[in-house]
Amino acid sequence: MIQTLWDLLVREAVYLWYYLDIQIRQLMPFYIIGTMLGSFISVFAKDSIKTWFDRLGMARLGVLTLIPAALLGFASPICMYGTLPLAAAFRQKGVRQDTLACFMTASVLLNPQLIAYSAALGSTAFWVRLISCFIMAITAGLLVRWCFKEQEFFNFTGFAEGSSRDIHPNLIVRYLKNVGRNLKITLPYFLVGILLAALFSIHLPQQEFADLFGKDNALGVLFAATLGVPLYMCGGGTIPILVSWLASGMSLGSAAAFMLSGPATKITNLAALKAVLGLRNFILYLLFVLIFATATGLIINVLQP
Fold first, then answer.
1. CA pair distance 181, 278, nearest whole angstrom
2. What is the pLDDT of residue 160?
């Protein structure tokens, strides 16, 4: 019996090492590029993004303002806790609520690092993620524009813009320090994601998984959207898991639902969102995320060849 147990452990270790090696070789280049790109924008372009958005908020482009607002949100490397004080400062300057809602939604859904990471999913899933996130950000801005004309959607009381940590006089040192902080924050999640993806590849019953989350099961899209709420901790950490799930038979629609609901309801962001939205608007936000993610997933599955 001891020999049998030992053989099982050895076999498990061999399989685990095999899949870990595949995941690391496949995904690590995307992780490194994404980390370096995110730090580069954070150090050298963050102030420019703030300036462009400030000018955008003063422009009189009507609904068209939402398009560059979403794109600037994607380009912003700032996390939610940095975005909220920045949005509070913009609101004080008179930037419209719909523009802020669009920018903040886009910033929550994607950033330069996550865009680079998502290239590992393959070209189709990559573009599905970018386009669906863009449409979701625009939709959020339009809903705030139409439904909150006469009342405040946000409550930025107590949110003041903090000081930047990128202050070293030497630009190269400043950049390297930012890369170090980025690695410290994201690398553990990325490695955990690779480990979970390897365990999924070994133990996940692929046929049952494909039946649940496959194209022909509409309920699987709803499950995927709901799973995004408790399971999504870090964008980089979910990429290996999504690669494994897609290979196991998850439909593109279910993956899209997870990629939309996950970052929008990330546990670490929800407390800050609750504080700035209030209970009623916070509930409306959650309903919007789940409905939009589920509807998008169902539409993609219908359109998917």
1. 32
2. 60
Contact 260, 296 (CB under 8 A): yes
CA 260/CA 140 separation, integer angstroms: 13
* pTM of the full structure: 0.89
Please choose, from the candidates 38, 74, 68, 37, the residue with its C-alpha nearest in 3D space to the C-alpha of residue 53. 68
Place of tokens 């609101």: 91
Please enumerate in sequence order all residues whose Cβ is within 8 A of that of 298, keeping only pairs 6 or more positions apart, or say none: 218, 221, 253
Does residue 235 contact residue 193 with C-beta atoms inside 8 Å?
no
Q: Which of 291, 284, 286 minimizes the C-alpha distance to 221?
A: 291
Collapse the DSSP code of 233 into the 3-class scheme (helix H, G, I; strand E, B; otherwise coil) and give the result. Answer: coil
Separation of alpha carbons 104 and 100, rounded Å = 6
Which pLDDT score is estimated for 55? 80
State in Å, rounded, how far the first CA of the chain is from the last one: 50
- Find the helix or strand (DSSP H, E) in which 275 lies: helix 267-303
Alpha carbon 18 to chain centroid, angstroms? 28
> Which ranges of 65-205 would DSSP assign to H, the alpha helix?
66-75, 80-92, 97-109, 112-118, 123-147, 171-203
Residue 38 DSSP label: H
CB-CB contact of 107 with 143 (8 Å):
no
**pLDDT band at residue 272 under the 50/70/90 scheme:** confident
Calpha distance 156→122 (Å, rounded): 39
